[in-house]
Amino acid sequence: MISGRILAIETSCDETAAAVVDGGREIVASVVASQVALHAPTGGIVPEVAARAHLRWIVPVLEEARERAGIRDWSEVEAVAVTEGPGLAGSLLVGINAAKTLAWVHGRPLVPVNHLEGHIYAAWLRPEGGAESREPEFPLVALVVSGGHTFLVEMRDHLDYRLLGQTIDDAAGEAFDKVGRLLGLPYPGGPAIMRAAAAAEQLDRRFPRAWLGDSYDFSFSGLKTAARRAVELERGSNGKVSSGPSSGGSPLSESTVAELAWAFQESVVEVLATKTGRAAERVGARAIVLGGGVAANAVLRERIHGRAAALGIPLIVPAPELCTDNAAMIGAAGFHRARAGTRATAELDARPSLKLAV
Ligand code: KG4
Ligand code: ZN
């Protein structure tokens, strides 16, 4: 039975990350090498470039995690957990091969983890600095909002997921990134839109909300189109098909960018918070868990916190650096996977379109 320290490796997208997590909750060490600067010039991730960067960084990141954890060699951990998917195949394989090698060399079990359950399990990690935090209680509702995924699940126990709803087009983070680009903001769009929106003075613009009836599904493509139209109108390039800040018309003023960013963020946040609150009420949740890169958004956190408070239940949301991709969350999920007896063989392969087991 696994009871203590696990080495976790995450390379599914554009962060090369390694962590040592104790008992599924305590972060002994967590190292993340971000490729944001590398992908900023293209405004998005180029898979080939990402995979090469993982190869460049995986060994230094592992060494840094080992040193920070005060570990002599990896035989001091009980298991090696690694993200098997979903994600970019070439990127996933770098982490998987490193994990396989270390598990084999040190005779430790290899535990495959779904990246999406990692985002959920970040809520179990104790905040760094030793602050006491509540462990999420079941049943709970978890909203995962990242660059590639947006979904709402009910959990009645560990590793037990029932899908309530998901995006039918873009992920929430993808919408932030695309609209950020339309507004001429730096990549990634999410944090840039949040910063721009905070400076908005005129708060009377309104973009549409896609409620999709009573369902827990989400849609952001209509909102993206509305944002594009508003940008074109502002720039006096109405009618022209534009996909970026470089196309026709005059540049947007800083105050217009702020107003549009605010209106867009409001629309996304209102739908996410309302549906999450409604789901929590309907399933009788004892907690709401929030995860994924977009959960780093302060307005979304605050709004869902309000919904949870109205229901008299806690909102458990990781620190912003644990919402975006990291390996500590893989260590938290890996701990429960390992306890449940999940093991991978030497044949473990990348699973780019792996779903959450529902
Ligand atoms: O979970 P994540 O790090 O990677 C994926 O698994 O996709 O999420 C990255 C996404 C990006 O789309 C980024 O724009 C968004 O999270 N994001 C934010 C914020 N910080 C990151 N979106 C809104 N507000 C933020 N503060
Ligand atoms: Zn992610």
How does the SSE layout of this entry go?
Layout: E1 5-10, E2 15-22, E3 26-34, H1 36-39, H2 47-69, E4 79-85, H3 89-106, E5 110-114, H4 115-121, E6 140-145, E7 150-157, E8 160-166, H5 172-182, H6 189-198, H7 221-234, H8 254-283, E9 287-291, H9 298-311, E10 315-316, H10 320-323, H11 328-339
Parallel strand pairs: 1-4, 4-5, 6-9, 9-10
Antiparallel strand pairs: 1-2, 2-3, 6-7, 7-8
Helix pairs in contact: 2-3, 4-11, 5-6, 5-7, 5-8, 6-8, 7-8, 8-9
The protein binds 5'-O-[(R)-(carboxyoxy)(hydroxy)phosphoryl]adenosine (KG4) and zinc ion.
Essential attributes:
358 residues; alpha/beta; Nucleotidyltransferase, domain 5; 2 domains; 5-stranded mixed beta sheet; 10 strands; binds 5'-O-[(R)-(carboxyoxy)(hydroxy)phosphoryl]adenosine; binds zinc ion
Q: Can you give a write-up of this model?
A:
The protein has helices spanning 36-39, 47-69, 89-106, 115-121, 172-182, 189-198, 221-234, 254-283, 298-311, 320-323, 328-339; strands spanning 5-10, 15-22, 26-34, 79-85, 110-114, 140-145, 150-157, 160-166, 287-291, 315-316. It has 358 residues and is α/β, with parallel strands linked by helices. It has two domains: 5-127 and 321-339, Nucleotidyltransferase, domain 5, CATH 3.30.420.40; 140-317, Nucleotidyltransferase, domain 5 (2-Layer Sandwich). A hairpin with a 2-residue loop joins β7 (150-157) and β8 (160-166). α8 packs parallel to α9 (298-311). The protein is globular.
